[in-house]
Design brief:
alpha/beta, three-stranded parallel beta sheet, single chain, TIM Barrel
């Protein structure tokens, strides 16, 4: 196995690293050298010093979920006193608030509710599209599989019906670590990694774009983080449907899983290795939601070219005891202070305007 410097030189020159080489970087690489290599790759892929962001809102249509993931502090069981399903008027009010501040995207996600079938979502999406001109970036693969099971329709049929009713693209939620050894411990009731990827493959082949995520810093090994990245990379080779990759760190407070999570250095190293390994995914997103503004700002020198969203509302991470907030003005200031040009983007990463 080549030394770390030789591996980084190989990656910066545009040659693909193997899973074994990636694991070596994750296990033995130092932050400064990993960050410098990732920054060089980012500069090659995005030669303009532009950092993008999107104005959106994360709306949780319900907190009821039968999956009961051990890492989640947000879900409630059916019948709990604080369980809810968002009513239509409240939903519309949230959308109108989003549009009023220039929002272009809705991230609508929730739990696996046993009583909300496919019609609930097709009716909701049609109602939104009839009233508002906004991109619906919603429903992660576990939700799609759940709707397939409830309806008896195939995943392809579910996606087709949702798309016809107004669904535009899929977020990459529910990926956690794409290794079933890990999933069997942290989310034993949730779909396996292959089902997650099959939903994405189906969506891509139907012409829908999606993102991919990784939640790390709990029970996975460095080699399993790399396997996750390699599986995303292989899917991207096949379909090219991922617009971005978003690594974010597990937040342990208030969860059944517990633990200490990943600190800033571990987060930045993992983000840098993500940029190095994912040579075919165009965009890497920083996660100020879990790490805060300062670490997200440093991430821009470790391979990230996107600052995520203004996230006018966020409930899942907050339920785990982390409550970072960033107004649009602070995002712009962070990007500028880091030496980059902030640019508002659409969901597909088309540029709306530079600031």
């Amino acid at each position: 196995m080549a030394g770390i410097a030789a591996l980084l030189e190989k990656a910066v020159s545009g040659r693909r690293l193997s899973p074994e080489e990636g694991a070596s970087l994750m296990e033995r690489g130092e932050l400064l050298e990993l960050g410098a290599a990732a920054d060089a790759i980012r500069g090659r892929l995005h030669p303009r010093r532009r950092v993008t962001y999107v104005i959106d809102r994360n709306i949780n249509y319900t907190n009821v979920c039968v999956s009961r993931c051990r890492f989640c502090a947000f879900y409630r069981r059916p019948g709990d006193t604080d369980a809810y399903v968002l009513d239509r008027n409240t939903l519309f009010g949230k959308i109108e608030e989003t549009l009023a501040v220039g929002g272009t995207e809705l991230l609508i996600q929730g739990g696996l509710h046993p009583d909300l079938g496919l019609d609930f979502f097709t009716d909701m999406f049609r109602a939104i599209k009839e009233r508002y001109d906004i991109h619906i970036h919603s429903l992660s693969p576990p939700e799609i599989v759940h709707l397939s099971r409830l309806s008896g329709f195939s995943v392809a049929e579910v996606l087709t019906r949702l798309r016809q009713s107004g669904l535009d693209s899929l977020p990459g939620g529910g990926a956690e670590i794409l290794v079933d050894r890990v999933r069997s411990v942290i989310s034993p009731e949730k779909i396996g990694w292959r089902q997650w990827m099959d939903v994405m493959d189906c969506a891509h082949r139907l012409g829908m774009k999606t993102t991919a995520t990784m939640m790390f810093g709990h029970l996975e090994t460095p080699a399993e983080r790399i396997l996750h990245l390699v599986r995303v990379r292989e899917q991207q080779d096949a379909t090219g449907g991922f617009t971005a990759f978003i690594p974010w760190s597990f937040q342990p407070r208030n969860t059944a899983l517990g633990g200490s999570g990943a600190g800033g250095v571990e987060y930045l190293k993992t983000l840098a290795v993500s940029r190095i390994m994912l040579d075919n995914v165009p965009n890497i997103q920083a996660s100020w939601v879990t790490q805060g503004a300062k670490i997200a700002q440093v991430a821009l020198s470790c391979g990230a070219n996107d600052f995520g969203s203004t996230m006018l509302e966020e409930n899942v991470v907050r339920a785990a005891g982390v409550d970072y907030r960033m107004a649009l003005g602070e995002i712009l200031r962070c990007v500028r202070d880091a030496g980059y040009i902030p640019a508002q983007r659409a969901t597909d990463y088309g540029i709306i305007k530079e600031n």
